[in-house]
Each structure stands twice: as C-alpha cells, then as structure tokens.
Design goal:
Length: 334
C-alpha cells in the first residue's frame, strides 16, 4: 500500500453553493475523500481579491459554504476543511513565488484575462487580483497536492502552479514541492435555468442547495426550454435544453428520461409535463440535503469548531512545507 494521494480544492465564499457546484465539484469530493488525503479550502482571502469592499459578505458566506459542504456529505472526519486566511504560511509562500513569475506572464493568464473583462476593470485591476494565481499556487503547493479536481476554467491556475514548482525546485536544487495534476470533472458544466452556458451565483439563474421546495418550483417553472417549441404538438429540441440537461444530471431513471426525450423530439409532449417531472427529481435530490443543512444551521458554533479544527491541521501541514522551502532557499535562520 502506497501513501494516499493528496487532493486539494477550494471555493470562494461569495455566496451559497448551487447545483452547478454539486455537479462540477461537490459530488466528486464526496468520492475522493474515500481514498485520498483531501483538503478543502474556503478561499476567503481569494474572495477578497475582488470583494475587498464587502468583507462581511465573505465572512457570512464562510458558514454558508461550510454548511453546503457538510450537507452534501463532505465528511470532516475524512476531509480537512479549513479557512484560507487563517493559514499565515500561504501569503509568505506567495511572497517567494512572486519573485519567480514575471508580470508579463501574469498578464497572460487566460482565466484572469477573462475575469478582468467580465468585471470591467479596464486598466484599474486590483494588484491582489492580478496575482491571485500565485496565491492559488501557494494554496496547492503548501499541502503538496498531487491532484486538483477542478473545472476547465482552473486549468491555467494549475499550469502556473506547475511552472512555479519546477522553477522553485530547479532554482533551489530541491524536491520539496510537488507538481500537481488537474483532474477534470467528468460531467459537463451545468447550464443556468435561463439557458446560459453557466450557472452562476450572481447571474440569477442558479438553483441553490439551500433553496426551499417553493423556490425550486418557481425556478423550474420559469426555466428556459426550446424557444421554438411553441405548441405541444410541435417537435422540440433536447440539445441545449437545460430541462433535459438537468434530467441527465439528476434523474436516476434513465429509461424514463430517454422516453421523455424521444417523445419531446417527436412532438406531443408539453414543457410543463417535463418540468413537473424535473421538479419531482430535484425535490427528491435536494430534500435530504436541505434537511441536513437546516439541522446543522441550528448550531453554527459546532460548524465553526469543525472549521477551527480543520484549520489547525492545515496550519501544521503548511508550516512544515514553508519550513522546508525556507531551508531549501537557505533562509531558515533560526
Ligand atoms: N479559484 C478557485 C475558484 O474560483 C478557488 C480556489 C482557490 C482553488 N484556491 C484553490 C481551487 C486551490 C483549487 C485549488 O473556484
């Protein structure tokens, strides 16, 4: 038996988690914890790189995200859940990494470039935002992560991390840092209820894990479908129709889903019938999650205690790596 592989992922606590997070990463974390040494980070310091003006929002969502984790079955006995900003080794590692990457390289990170566009920063990009990929490299390497299970948009972050690891190890003739690998989630990205490519917490097109059955019903009723499917008799399109994408992701009765798709494509199946079925499927999926979440939310103190314990474990690991780095650099003075 070899040593367990280390897996690390994180989320920015800027809102509650939704079905897109479940499909894209939460479900795989629940699996991964069974045979990996897993760390899950609540990336509050990274969230502040673009929400510096709303620290209370970041703070409040730490508890919300933790509740989401626990409710879907991320088990604190198997997974170390911790808060990024409470790990002082991370910014120190980042300081050393910043000397190993050029400004020009940072400007060409495709994910950062796209986010600068989206956020409309123009020339006024916060410096902390520009360098957050280096902070993320510290997150990953502090825990010597072998695998980082993330979505496609995070690939450039892992590439930058690999570059930094190689550069550090070569420059300081050491092998203390571990090169991480991306593990892409198998499921395609979940579209928004409005049919847009991505479900996003700020896009108003998300179904949250904490949503009440009434909220879910409203959102499903208003879902985008095939805009050309005007009358029940008309043949409808299944591709690019989020109602069917969600059924593919959440319905266990595959035969029924295939029947519905065939019927819809033939014509004669109304949107409301498919939506009713989707609602049943989603309620059945979300019910136990919401109930567990409500139960846990009654005692936020215990949830914070779990985060405190996880953060304590994480600090030991990160401090050890930092010490090894300083030793390799010859700057561990005493
Ligand atoms: N950048 C990630 C996101 O936006 C969050 C994150 C922070 C992360 N640190 C990480 C992901 C380390 C994986 C590994 O979702």
């Amino acid at each position: 038996m070899g040593k367990k592989l280390v897996a690390l992922t994180g989320d920015r606590p800027t809102g509650k988690l939704h079905l897109g997070h479940y499909v894209g990463s939460l479900a795989s974390r629940v699996q991964i914890q069974e045979d990996h040494r897993q760390f899950v980070m609540i990336a509050d310091a990274q969230a502040l790189t673009d929400y510096a003006h709303e620290p209370e929002r970041v703070r409040e969502n730490i508890l919300q995200v933790a509740l989401d984790y626990l409710a879907v079955g991320i088990d604190p006995k198997k997974t170390t859940i911790f808060i990024q900003s409470m790990i002082p080794a991370l910014p120190e590692m980042m300081m050393y990494f910043l000397n190993l990457v050029t400004w020009n390289r940072l400007k060409h990170n495709p994910t950062v470039k796209a986010e600068i566009q989206q956020k409309g920063y123009g020339e006024e990009v916060p410096a902390g935002f520009m360098v957050y990929p280096v902070s993320q490299a510290a997150d990953i390497t502090a825990f010597k992560a072998d695998v980082v299970p993330v979505g496609e948009d995070q690939i450039p972050m892992i590439e930058q991390t690999v570059e930094l690891v190689r550069k550090f190890n070569r420059m300081y003739r050491t092998d203390v840092l571990v090169e991480p690998k991306v593990v892409l989630s198998k499921v395609a990205r979940l579209p928004g209820t409005d049919g847009r490519e991505k479900m996003g917490k700020s896009l108003g097109n998300a179904i949250f894990l904490a949503d009440s059955p009434d909220d879910v019903a409203k959102k499903v009723k208003g879902m985008y479908t095939d805009p050309n499917h005007l009358r029940v008799e008309d043949p409808g399109k299944v591709e690019g129709n989020p109602v069917f994408t969600y059924l593919d992701a959440f319905a266990s009765d595959r035969i029924k889903v295939e029947e519905l798709k065939a019927h819809y494509q033939r014509g004669g199946l109304g949107d409301s019938v498919v939506k009713k079925y989707l609602l049943d499927v989603l309620i059945a999926f979300l019910d136990p999650i919401r109930k567990k979440r409500e139960e846990l939310a009654k005692d936020p103190g215990s949830v914070m205690d779990l985060l405190r314990e996880g953060t304590c474990v994480a600090n030991d690991v990160a401090d050890t790596t930092l010490k090894q780095m300083r030793q390799a650099m010859g700057i561990l003075y005493f």
